[in-house]
Write a structure and sequence with these properties.
Helix content is 32%, strand content 24%. The chain is an alpha/beta fold. The protein folds into 2 domains: 95 residues, Sandwich (Immunoglobulin-like), CATH 2.60.40.10; 240 residues, Alpha/Beta hydrolase fold, catalytic domain (Rossmann fold, 3-Layer(aba) Sandwich). Helix 9 links the parallel strand 17 and strand 18. Helix 1 runs antiparallel to helix 2, helix 5 runs parallel beside helix 10 and helix 6 packs across helix 7. The radius of gyration is 28 Å and the shape is globular.
């Protein structure tokens, strides 16, 4: 733009010199033309920015009010019906109908919300939209939702899930080789702020559920924020957290491997078949982590936990490698018992004979996997195997899994 303005300026100077004698006659015409040129230049200079700003929202939304209520605003004077649907209640999603104001802005305010991270979307004349005024979006399988955080005081859940002024760990996407599966695979690794490549740290392996991938716990689970805040408060031991992709037929999250930008649906490539299961290939991950990071390479410094499908993987890993990990956390676990299976019974006996330091089961009262978890507990009780159990309100939701991660992280690696 500087070059263009320089050329235009030179042309103007030449024109002024050539018309000096007739300047009074042409002054008004020339000034108008100069003004138009300057305006055009300014418009051209801003054209690239306008591509991004052309859809800039005319309202602020959401607005977290001082009393804990939240106000949503959406501008569309032509819309007939607008509503917001979010996980504002403990168990069920709630839809709030918005009211149109004279200026074309639709608005609604929630009841007082508890400290928490919330997800929501808009419905405009029957079509689902993310809020154009809110830049913060999460993907859960193929669904995009806006998020916001309510926090009322330090150490509440909202405060724990947000970024605070504390030392921050590093979150990295890492490719590793899996000889068992015969492929390069991607995982997410959290290194605590104290990681300097010299001191050794314990490792927690954190597994996602069905339809998720290696980004799920970082994005939806707020793992780095939770770990940063717990470590800064001295509530948990500084540790490495490894979040692998638990789908043996998928190398990485959608769009991040050679299959391209397919639509994620939770069942992508399941019919393809894998060379091995997640549990059978799991030691490839452990071996890579021990080789490439400063880890404490013993059982007492390894933990594994996961939600739903990842809880099932955790269960399978527990009796497959009973002396590799000392801490197990089953969150809303899809943990299937192998009934009347002598080999399974022997594996479970070997696991609990090894005396793991923690075998922890956590689930919500309304979770659809409750019966499966009750069956597991009955099996453990019948064999007098020691475990801990935690039950809270709610169902099969990220709100609970963030709670379980927070609790589990504070239980492990403490002598």
């Amino acid at each position: 733009m500087k070059k263009t303005m320089h050329i235009d300026g030179s042309l103007c100077q030449a024109k002024v010199a050539a018309n000096m004698e007739t300047w009074p006659i042409h002054r008004n015409r020339f000034c108008k033309r100069l003004f138009l040129l300057v305006c055009c230049g300014m418009m051209a200079a801003s054209s690239f920015g306008q591509q991004a700003l052309g859809q800039r929202p005319r309202v602020k939304s959401p607005v977290v009010n001082a009393d804990g209520t939240v106000t949503f605003n959406f501008f569309d004077p032509t819309a007939q019906q607008v509503s917001v649907t979010g996980d504002f209640q403990e168990i069920h999603w709630q839809t709030l109908h918005m009211t149109k104001q004279d200026n074309g802005v639709w608005t609604v305010t929630t009841p007082v919300l508890n400290p928490e991270l919330y997800s929501y979307s808009l419905s405009v004349d029957g079509q689902r939209f993310i809020d154009p005024a809110n830049s913060y979006v999460n993907r859960d399988i193929s669904t995009l939702s806006n998020i916001f955080i309510v926090s009322k005081e330090e150490n509440d859940k909202g405060h724990l899930y947000q970024v605070n002024d504390v030392p921050h760990g590093t979150l990295s996407r890492v490719w590793y080789d899996s000889p068992t599966l015969g492929q390069q695979r991607r995982m997410t690794v959290y290194l605590p702020a104290a990681y300097d490549g010299k001191k050794k740290f314990p490792v927690m392996y954190l597994l996602h559920g069905h339809g998720g991938d290696e980004t799920a716990w970082g994005d939806l689970g707020r793992t780095s924020q939770i770990m940063d805040n717990l470590i800064a408060q001295g509530k948990c031991v500084p540790m490495i957290v490894v979040m692998p992709n638990g789908n043996p037929t998928c190398n990485a999250a959608p769009g991040w491997w050679h299959e391209g930008m397919y639509t994620p649906d939770g069942n992508a490539f399941n019919r393809r078949g894998a060379k091995a299961s997640m549990e059978e290939s799991f030691m490839d991950i452990v071996n890579f982590v021990d080789k490439n990071y400063k880890t404490i390479r013993k059982r007492s410094a390894r933990a594994v936990t996961g939600l739903s499908m990842g809880g099932g993987h955790t269960f399978g890993i527990s009796y497959r490698y009973p002396e590799v990990f000392d801490y197990y956390g089953l969150q809303s676990a899809a943990a299937r018992l192998k009934k009347n299976d002598a080999q399974f019974d022997a594996q479970m006996a070997r696991l609990f004979a090894s005396e793991p330091r923690l075998f922890w089961i956590a689930i919500g009262k309304e979770d659809f996997l409750m019966q499966m978890n009750n069956d597991l507990r009955n099996y453990l009780d019948a064999h007098q195997y020691t475990y801990e159990y935690y039950e809270n309100d709610g169902g099969h939701i990220w709100r609970n899994w963030r709670i379980y991660l927070t609790m589990f992280a504070q239980k492990i690696f403490k002598e």
